[in-house]
Amino acid sequence: MLQLGDEVTLYSMVFVLVLLGTRSPLWTTVLTVSLYLFLAMFRFPQVPASRVQQVLHPGSDKVSAVAHRGGGHDAPENTIAAIREARKNGAGGVELDLEFSADGVPILMHDETVDRTTNGSGPLSQMRLSDLRKLDAAAKYRLSEKFAGETIPTLEEAVEECIKLQLVIYFDVKGHPDEAAAALTELYKKHPVLYNSSIVCSFEPKVIYRMRQSDPEVVTALTHRPWSLSRLGDGVPRFSSLWKHHWMTLMDVVLDWAHHHVLWKLCGVSAFLIQKNFVSPDYVQYWAQRGVEVVAWTVNTKVEKEYYHTLLQVNYITDSLVEDCDPHY
Ligand SMILES: *[C@@H]1O[C@H](CO)[C@@H](O)[C@H](O)[C@H]1NC(C)=O
Ligand SMILES: *[C@@H]1O[C@H](CO)[C@@H](O)[C@H](O)[C@H]1NC(C)=O
């Protein structure tokens, strides 16, 4: 959908800024026209809305609750047990984190090390799948006895379980754009039902762009938390150096602007996953006008769920389908 207002604002702003910087009308015109041509030539169109509808609203549900990392409060995160628990508790989908073992096998894991969730220790980049398989994936979970014997699943195993249980999958890809795009492309080829029942999401536009280059039919989303470069989730500055903090704050402004005006269009995303506190009726409207759906994360209390479900009517990602739990940024 062409947003004439957007385009005029974008190119006017670029024009004025470049003009101020270069004082050359000729170069300003050349640069602005180049940007226009670049976006026009290299952007991906959004996938058809009917397919997005199937992915985001399975069974024509108005709002879908999505279990974060498979529902890390209700079961050990990113495990088959979590996926089953999410289904049992009525989730419409599960968000799963894609990572790779040292021998290049796609697996489910949020961190780059196994320390936080398993009884092992060390970076994934130094552990082969056969090493990872020996670990207890429930070791650090609060009810670990209940989930004894749970292992780290491969991406393939997790996907097959979700397809069997008819759960929508939100693939969260943090890095490795090339490897991730290759692994997911192969997966979509093998299981075409995923085109109607999954979405690839990332904080990194490069990952999404790479995914769409690899397979333009895949439904995609950008994930964003405003001020994420300069501040942690709870608002505490990331850097103690004052000048670095201010520099990163400026970068945050640029990144936020780019997400809302350029990157979504370049990648042709169908949804925007944003930290819940930034979602308002106006915000939902902003994206709706661009054919993009808002998904809020992470919504962890009953009162909040009510607000997102009934008032805002947007999908939300939660750590628990059954009870209130600690906030998660
Ligand atoms: C982790 O737990 C599993 C299952 O109990 C066990 O077989 C394995 O030896 C343990 N690994 C480590 C490094 O403690
Ligand atoms: C996806 O959904 C469309 C529309 O309902 C349907 O025609 C198509 O067969 C589905 N594809 C798969 C692989 O399930």
From TrEMBL:
GO terms for molecular function: glycerophosphodiester phosphodiesterase activity. The keyword Transmembrane applies. It comes from the Eukaryota. The chain crosses the membrane at residues 12-39. Keywords: Membrane, Transmembrane, Transmembrane helix. Residues 63-329 form the GP-PDE domain. InterPro entries: GP_PDE_dom (IPR030395), PLC-like_Pdiesterase_TIM-brl (IPR017946). SUPFAM superfamilies: PLC-like phosphodiesterases. Gene3D superfamilies: Phosphatidylinositol (PI) phosphodiesterase. GO terms for biological process: ethanolamine metabolic process; N-acylethanolamine metabolic process; phospholipid metabolic process. GO terms for cellular component: plasma membrane. Belongs to the glycerophosphoryl diester phosphodiesterase family. This is GP-PDE domain-containing protein. It comes from Pleuronectes platessa.
